Amino acid sequence: MIDQSDILAALRWHVDIGCDEAIGDEPLDWAMLAARPAVARAPAGASALPPAAARPAPASRSAFGGPSGASMFGAPVTADLPLGASEAGASARARAAEARSLEELEAALRAFDGCPLKATAMNTVFADGNPAADIMLIGEAPGEDEDRQGKPFVGVSGKLLDRMLAQVGLDRGAVYISNILPWRPPGNRSPTQAEIAACLPFLERHVELIKPKVLVPLGGTSAKTLLNRAEGITRLRGRWFDYASPGLPGPVPVLPMLHPAYLLRNPIAKREAWRDLLTLRQRFPG
Prior knowledge:
The structure is a single chain. By secondary structure, the protein is of the alpha/beta class. The chain has twelve helices and six strands. The longest helix is centred in the last third of the chain and has 18 residues, at 193-210.
C-alpha cells in the first residue's frame, strides 16, 4: 500500500518546482511515448533484413542518439520549434509595429508563439481598466488568479491595489492596467530576461497606443524594464523619471511604486506606498 505521506511529499515537490496547474484534460503517458514498435521476427532461413531497395535510407541521429526528428522519449518533434531569443524579439517587434489599435495588438499577442510561457499558461492576460485613462499601471506578470480569470491584478494583490487606489479617489474606471508579461510564469517565479525581451515590444506598443499622461510601474521588474535601470525598487520608488518612445508625442513621466504583493509581505512599507500615491495625485489631480 502506498503511504499517504509519500503522496503528499510528491505533491509538495511538484508545487515547489512550479507544477501547480493541470493544463490538459488527460495525463500524458510518457512510457507509451517512449515505447517503440518491436521488429518482427523473420521466418526461419530467411534474411532478417528486407532487400536493399526496400530499406529506408539511414536516418540522421539526434543529439540524444535517436533518429533526427524524434525526441529523447521517442515522440516525434514537429517542425514548429520554439523561436530563439533574438528571433522572438524580432518577430514580436514586427508584429507589434503592425498593430494600429488595441484590438489588433491583443490579436497579435495572442497569435505570438515566441515566448514559452504561453504553452504553460491558461490565459493571455492583456489588460483591464479604461483605455482612455491618464494613468497606466504596469505590473510584472499574472499570478494564479489572473491566469485563471484572464485579467491583471484580480487576486489578493489586486484587491489591495483596488483599496490603495480608492484611498486617493481612483478606481479601475480611472486607470489602465497591464503587465510586462501577458503569461504567468510557472509557480509565480520571476520572469527571465529572455521572456521579458520576447514580450517587451508588445508592451512598448501598448504604451504608444494608450498614450498615458503618467506611467506607474509596480515593482522592481516592471520599473527596471521600463526605465532600463539596474537599481532596485526601493531606490527607484517615489522618484520621477521619463519614458520615451518613437511612437509617443513626447516623454511620459514615470513614478515607480512598490508592488502590492511586496506590501502584503512587508506591511511596514505601506507608508511609503501611501506617500507615493499622494505624490501621484498631487501631480495628476484630475
